[in-house]
Amino acid sequence: MKTTAVILLTLGMATAHLAFAQDASPDVYSPSELTAMGQKLEQKAVKGLATETLKKYATDYTILAFRSQSGQAEQHEKFADFYVVVSGQAKLISGGHMVNGATTAPGELRGDSIQDGKETTIKKGDIVHIPANIPHQLTLAKGDTIEYFVIKVQEVN
Fold it and tell me: Is the pLDDT of residue 93 over 70?
């Protein structure tokens, strides 16, 4: 019985080590790869938005997003967002308070807009950090588009 427990413990540790080692390898996305993926997303866009989750990790995940229309206001209780703008531009409204906010999933709020927020124009090459619990929204002028790489990181309180 002891031998079986030791073998199972050893196998479990080895499996965990292999899983960690596999996750330890870097994921690299070149600008040309992101552009190609973005072109495919643009063709899939419904109501001005298409997203694709690229990879999930233990406490974070990556997404590629394409927008041709303004989005809803959103707020994530436990996740910070990092945006890397691949192409295009949009106005980021952050802070203030969400208008008509409602829970859409555990820890996730969506609303119509943001009132009294700070407006910042973001464009290709910009990197943005939005901490958890900060209302934010991307708005686009008519004819504008934006493609952005998102890193969602779970914040520890």
Answer: yes
